[in-house]
Specification:
Blueprint: H1 18-41, H2 45-69, H3 82-96, H4 106-128, H5 136-162
Pfam family, one: Rubrerythrin
Protein name: Ferritin family protein
InterPro entries: Ferritin-like (IPR012347), Ferritin-like_SF (IPR009078), Rr_diiron-bd_dom (IPR003251)
């Protein structure tokens, strides 16, 4: 990977290279996909359909991150916000996907998904701010932000229709 292989995202007690960070985000996307897959299996009708849709989208995000992981364009020129890394490490992992959540209504599903989308947007915004513009990582993180925002607006519309 040449000159791009040893850039650090956060220097301090929690130090990650971009490669390690991408692996972490791939795992988060896959955990989200698995979560939605379980919701789809344990529900019927519209909840199952929406959960399957979210599951496919999260799997797609993981695949895009895996593809980036194989490129030589892995570069970070500065440090990532420690709070964002800690949120990704402990917030999503433990609080959202680390325990069983009972989803009986569309509102519960959309409320959970909304928080997950917001967290993803924050993390990808931090990553996009750390990579050179016009680089492959910049374009991918920017695209993921757009997709997550699209998901968020879809969810907000659904929540609005439920109220």
């Amino acid at each position: 990977m040449g000159k791009y292989s040893k850039k650090i995202i956060y220097k301090g007690e929690l130090a990650l290279e971009l490669k390690d960070c991408l692996k972490h985000f791939i795992q988060l996307e896959l955990k989200a996909a698995k979560f939605y897959e379980e919701i789809a299996k344990n529900n019927k009708g519209e909840i199952a359909q929406v959960a399957k849709k979210f599951q496919k989208e999260e799997t797609s995000h993981a695949q895009k991150l895996k593809e980036l992981l194989t490129t030589a364009e892995l570069v970070m020129d500065s440090t990532i916000n420690k709070e964002v890394l800690l949120m990704s490490q402990y917030g999503i992992d433990v609080n959202l996907f680390g325990k069983e959540l009972k989803v009986d209504t569309r509102k519960q599903l959309f409320t959970f998904a909304l928080q997950a989308e917001k967290d993803s947007i924050l993390m990808y915004q931090e990553l996009v701010s750390q990579v050179p513009k016009n680089s492959k990582p910049y374009r991918l993180f920017s695209d993921l932000i757009k997709e997550e925002r699209g998901h968020m607006f879809f969810i907000l519309k659904q929540l609005h229709e439920l109220s």
